[in-house]
């Protein structure tokens, strides 16, 4: 396996996350900038990321991204081109994931969902099925059985729902989404009530959906969680067996390894 580092980008609705990794290797330290304005803030962050890894941006082997924000794609690609002299490849369009039914998966399936599901498949190769939860701007649930991606469900994001509630009410404060201890309790304090309701409520949502989807799959299916609030929910949800904060990037890195470096990333390359 080559030690050449690649730039891995996860372009989401809230943040653009970036990290360096060798294809099929572990993900290095990551940085994140707001998607809005996105590209301008990303340039210095990428330079600092490379400096921290002791590699010049021009020495990177390539750059690959998953994106659910089409309007940001060209700006981010142009920035990567300027900083590292690389053509940014977008998965799964330029870099497919290793699902046996890739050709049958509709093009409107989110690239981040496919990347997370593939990352989970590679991380747990012996699991007959998988349920993958991503606690991001939306809470997404995706299912894998064998080597096939089967699709999933979309629910409100925890923080998105919390912001919508508090912004639309006069007396409710912004949530901290943190608990003093992972114990369900009743009380009169508004903040405690909100945090308890949201965190235990989403833990129950995750537990209920995991049970129903595992029954639907008909095979044992470990539950893998990712996203910014995955750890907080997993602490309250015994159904979640694995928390992998960089799961989307792991999927992209595994897709790079699967491609075997065949794609050309250099600006102007054929």
Number of strands: 10
* Distinct helical segment count: 7
Structural class: alpha/beta
CATH architecture of the largest domain: 2-Layer Sandwich
Main pleated-sheet profile: 5 strands, mixed
How many structural domains are formed by the residues?
Answer: 2
Short description:
The protein has 270 residues and is α/β, with parallel strands linked by helices. Helices cover 37% and strands 21% of the residues. It has 7 helices and 10 strands.
Can you tell me about this structure?
It is a single chain. With 270 residues, the protein is of the alpha/beta class. It has two domains: 6-94, Nucleotidyltransferase, domain 5, CATH 3.30.420; 107-250, Nucleotidyltransferase, domain 5 (2-Layer Sandwich), CATH 3.30.420.40. 37% of the residues lie in helices and 21% in strands. The chain has seven helices and ten strands. It has helices at 39-53, 70-84, 111-123, 158-167, 190-217, 230-234, 247-259, and strands spanning 6-11, 15-21, 30-34, 63-67, 88-90, 129-135, 138-145, 148-156, 223-226, 240-243. The strands form two sheets. A five-stranded mixed β-sheet has the order 3-2-1-4-5, with helices on both faces. A hairpin with a 2-residue loop joins strand 7 (138-145) and strand 8. Helix 1 (39-53) packs across helix 2 (70-84). The chain is globular and about 60 Å long. The two termini are 24 Å apart. 40% of the residues are buried.
How would you summarize the topology of this molecule?
Blueprint: E1 6-11, E2 15-21, E3 30-34, H1 39-53, E4 63-67, H2 70-84, E5 88-90, H3 111-123, E6 129-135, E7 138-145, E8 148-156, H4 158-167, H5 190-217, E9 223-226, H6 230-234, E10 240-243, H7 247-259
Parallel strand pairs: 1-4, 4-5, 6-9, 9-10
Antiparallel strand pairs: 1-2, 2-3, 6-7, 7-8
């Amino acid at each position: 396996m080559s030690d050449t580092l690649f730039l891995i980008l996860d372009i989401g609705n809230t943040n653009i996350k970036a990290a360096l990794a060798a294809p099929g290797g572990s993900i290095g330290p990551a940085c994140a900038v707001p998607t809005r304005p996105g590209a301008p803030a990303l340039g210095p962050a990428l330079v600092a990321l490379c400096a921290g890894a002791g590699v010049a941006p021009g020495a990177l082997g390539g750059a690959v991204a998953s994106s659910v924000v089409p309007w940001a794609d060209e700006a981010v690609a142009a920035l990567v081109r300027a900083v590292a002299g690389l053509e940014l490849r977008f998965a799964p369009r330029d870099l497919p994931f290793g699902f046996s039914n890739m050709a049958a998966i509709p093009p409107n399936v989110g690239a981040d969902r496919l990347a997370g599901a593939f990352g989970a498949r590679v991380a747990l190769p012996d699991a007959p099925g998988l349920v993958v939860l991503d606690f991001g701007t939306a809470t997404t649930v995706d299912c894998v059985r064998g080597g096939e991606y089967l699709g999933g469900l979309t629910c409100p994001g925890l923080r998105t729902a919390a912001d919508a509630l508090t912004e639309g009410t006069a007396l409710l404060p912004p949530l901290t989404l943190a608990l003093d201890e992972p114990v369900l309790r009743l009380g009169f304090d508004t903040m405690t009530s909100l945090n308890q309701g949201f965190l235990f409520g989403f833990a129950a949502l995750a537990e209920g959906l995991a049970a129903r989807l595992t029954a639907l799959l008909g095979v044992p299916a470990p539950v893998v969680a990712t996203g910014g609030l995955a750890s907080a929910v997993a602490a309250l949800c015994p159904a979640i067996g694995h928390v992998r904060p960089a799961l989307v990037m792991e999927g992209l890195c595994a897709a790079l390894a699967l491609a075997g470096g065949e794609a050309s990333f250099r600006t102007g390359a054929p």
